[in-house]
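CO-FOLDING WORKSHEET

Operator: S.A.
Ligand of interest: adenosine-5'-triphosphate
Run index: 265
Mode: holo prediction, single chain
Checklist:
[x] sequence pasted
[x] SMILES validated
[ ] output reviewed
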Amino acid sequence: MNLNLKHNTTLSAEDLCIGYGRGSREIRVVEGLTFSLQSSELVGIVGVNGIGKSTLLRTLGGVQPSLSGNLSVNGEALKEINQRKLAELLSVVLTEPTASGNLTALELVSLGRHPHTNWIGSLTAQDRKVVLEAVEWMQIEKLVQKKCFELSDGQLQRVFIARALAQDTRIILLDEPTTHLDLYHKVQILKLLQRIAHEHGKTILFTTHEIELAIQLCDKLLVLDNEQNAFGTPSELIARHSFEKLFPEDTLVFDPRTASFKVNK
Ligand SMILES: Nc1ncnc2c1ncn2[C@@H]1O[C@H](COP(=O)(O)OP(=O)(O)OP(=O)(O)O)[C@@H](O)[C@H]1O
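OUTPUT RECEIVED:
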């Protein structure tokens, strides 16, 4: 079956191998990944440090090439899509933001409109409306006139997410969007991403170490472990014992009844 024929499949990977280098210097980080994402889904990628979450996100976003396998966006092979068109389909927020210190938060969010603006890059009334909506969604109204270098890591993270929302793409990829946030703001952002996915028909995929929150809030999860690399709804994955082997059980034990990890004392 060609998964891409499903009208609401936005992003799909088939027998995907991700990694670095070429030829004898090739480093295969994860192999044999097959999954497809639909619109209106919030999907988390979890797994231990160094397993390949960021590598996968960058590969799906076209930031680095895959080693083999097929990747498609809206039914079209990713490698056939030019950068400008890709920016209309998909936005990516990475962990190491590019230099943006001297811009105000509002200017940075406005850059999200870049793929949609004319050749001079001027914003229309509609562009400004979308930018202000993104600012409201991320509740950064009080920050918009501040320079990015004046913002805390957590505030800056919200500004970068707002930029991705302003880009207004069907697919949004976020690398560890909750890293610098306190527990309240982590939950707040994830609930907001869930609402945006559900109410605006977007596919939102993010990497995270917040496995318990992801189990509670995501529609689906990809559990990278370099064995099963299981993909499914949180309850399917709990039933398949996909979380049990993530960490050594002499340290952390997953309790399927509460969907949480307990320290093995
Ligand atoms: N530019 C690179 N060249 C070669 N190998 C790399 C490169 N970047 C990352 N790697 C390797 O790829 C593997 C996966 O790294 P990646 O950053 O994707 O993991 P991660 O799951 O996101 O980790 P973390 O949870 O620590 O952020 C690691 O072994 C890492 O050392």
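REVIEW:
The pocket of adenosine-5'-triphosphate is lined by residues 20, 27, 29, 47, 49-55 (CB under 6 Å).
Residues 1-6 have pLDDT under 50 and may be disordered.
[x] output reviewed
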